[in-house]
Amino acid sequence: MSAAPEEATREAKGLGGGRVGMLGAVVIGVSTIAPAYTLTGALGPTASVVGDHLPAIFLVGFIPMLLVALGYRALNSAMPDAGTTFTWGSRAFGPWIGWMGGWGLLAATVLVLSNLAGIAVDFFYLMLAQITGRDSLADLAANVPVNIATCLVFMALACWISYRGLEATKVFQYVLVAFQLVVLVWFAVAAFVRVADGSAPGGLSVQAGWFNPLGVGSFSAFAAGVSLSVFIYWGWDVVLTMNEETQGARTTPGRAAVSTIAVIVVLYLTIALAVLSFSGTGSEGLGLGNEDIQENIFAALAGPVMGPVAVLMSVAVLASSAASLQSTFISPARTMLAMGHYGALPKKYAHVSRRFQSPGYATVVSAVIASVFYAVMRVVSVNVLSDTITALGMMVCFYYGVTALACVWYFRGSWAGSVKAFASTCLAPLVGGILLLVFFVQTAVDSTDPSYGSGSQVGGVGLVFLLGVGVLALGVVVMLVQFARRPGFFRGQTISVGRSTTDV
Question: Pick from 312, 308, 285, 284: which is nearest to 298 by CA?
Answer without folding.
Answer: 312
